[in-house]
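Pilot study result, target chain (179 residues):
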Amino acid sequence: MQFSEERLSARILTDLTLALRPPVEMLLNLAVKRAWRRSASAFGRLGRFQNQPYLIDPEDLPVAFELTLSEVGGAVKVVRRTLQPTSYVAEISGELLELLALFDGSADADAAFFAGGLTVRGDTGAVLALNNALEAANLRLADLLVPAALAPGLDPILQRLVEGRRAHKRTGGQPYGVH
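Predicted structure:
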């Protein structure tokens, strides 16, 4: 019985998140547009993977994101998770904080992958091209999460929150030096 209740709760949460799709997509697409304006040449690093959809799958959220970048910008769509084979050039999954750290460059993609924090499926060349483009874009966490006018003031706060959460996870909730 409990399994059914968990599935129902997960479905309700997914449906609610998908109902909020338009404002979330609008904010994420504005972030992509800002990143492109700041560093259009970074998107060129995708090479043949421009206009190819990537699936970014935060395992701790009820939905995933389809990211497509091109020489003139890009688009992000909120999508339902599916077990069916997909047509993404690559799928990258992990916890939201780990994925955000990759996008803003505060985490090493190779280290995160080999430590088991990321799962990658699909064309590894596409993943490397995306990683190179993200590094060249020099994004801040606030660029990804908040409207442009708020980004400069909120970036240090967001960085501290994420770093604190990641440190908490690394230490298993124990203060540094206590094990």
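One observation from the pilot: The longest helix spans residues 151-170. A full batch analysis is planned for the follow-on phase.
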